[in-house]
Amino acid sequence: MRxxxxxxxxPDNMRYDPDNYKWGIFYFNSKDPRIILPKRxxxxxxxxxxxxxxxxxxIILILAAGYFxxxxxx
Length: 74
What we know:
Blueprint: E1 21-22, E2 26-27, E3 36-38, E4 46-48, H1 54-72
Antiparallel strand pairs: 1-2, 3-4
């Protein structure tokens, strides 16, 4: 039986599938090529696809920028 989330016509619906979330908050879907996507409630902002290795690079860059700004008075 095919789920409504498996449809290639509706790739945005993958973000609503609870099976694509770890611990209910971290989006983890290796079938979704997007790195940044809207949260389940789009009014709450965006989230990262943690199945995509680029998302970890984004987190490291954000943390490094915060470190350099706070320690080197940029």
